[in-house]
Amino acid sequence: MYIMMKNFKNLFAIVSCTLAFSVTSCCSDDEAALHGIIDPLESVDYVALSNSTIDEYINFAKTPRLGFHLDKAKAYLTGWAQKHGYQPHSDEFGNVWFDVPATAGYEDYPVVILQGHMDMICASKPGETYDYTEVVGEPYYEGEGEDKVLKGKKVNLGADNGIGVASSLAIAASNVPHGPLRILLTANEDYDMSGAKGLSPDVLNAAALINIDSEQAGNLTYGCAGGHARHLTKKCDAEPLSAPADYNKVTVSLSGLKGGHSGINIGDHRMSASVVTDSIMRRIVKPFEARLIKINCGTYNNAIPDGTMMEFAVNSNVIFAHNI
Length: 324
Hints:
The chain is α+β, with helices and mostly antiparallel strands and 324 residues long.
């Protein structure tokens, strides 16, 4: 995933306004006016906050955080909290949280939780494989000005949900006016939600929880959708890899599709390589009595596959019979 610089002001406007919303929902308009909620928010330096978030994000992106292998990520986050004077907590499910005292004048406001997840889906270019428990993305910029993009060499940087973690840390380290905050960073969201499912309800003792895990800057989502994995297996009859002499080996590959997140982009009508693979199987492999040798499509959870590769052996006599 990548980050475009011009989206951050909208992101922090949303976060700040949501903090204000969580306060005003607990008191009358007159009380809100007396507390001076709106004016301090208008004085926030969003450029400085955005830059701070980028710095936090780049630093966190240098920490391996493949799902179910989060010891380094937990150590980074607990170390960050201690460095900034906060007491970190963790549980057996891999979750980390710490409390941030209210800024001066906001001590009586209700507690708000800022929540994101520390794990990520690791991906590399086709043909490149790495040990994702050790190798991380190498951040670099592409482009200029507001349109420049932050990308990662070798491995992606994990904007889902590294940017949510970074924005929470940036707010915790800033002087943005707020009531008491709890920074809650859960584990294994992209894999089985085990962190959130195992979290003690006592940790959620707050007036509001803001889930900072949306890829659509400028939008505020009231709700959250989870998923569940199913593993299906089917036994197939196998033959020796070497095909008879009258069979020809054929390789079909497709790359460069747009791909995307299976949750965010599922309604964007993007071509999925898995659908293409199914079409090849139905229209070529099966009708031509081909013998499937290898198939490679869709290697990452929560991703719309952007490419596929298939190898199969085809009887040349069958092809001629179909007048192809």
